[in-house]
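Note to self: keep these together.
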Amino acid sequence: MGKYLDPRADLTFKKIFGEHKHLVISLLNAMLPLKEDEQVESIEYWPAEKVPDWMQAEKDSIVDVCCKDNKQREFIVEN
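Structure:
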């Protein structure tokens, strides 16, 4: 039986989707309960060391993807 990499693992996720941001945007828009005018339009991969100031209390959090929607609001997705 063949072995498969788990796409939920950080390294595998970035390997699969790292060069194909449009696939991640499509996946997020399909999975998240967003209104049409709140759809993700761009993403940025963050290194594990980068933590937003407002999350300093949660030092164990690893932020993987910063998303920007049609209204230029930012939110994070952690895989």
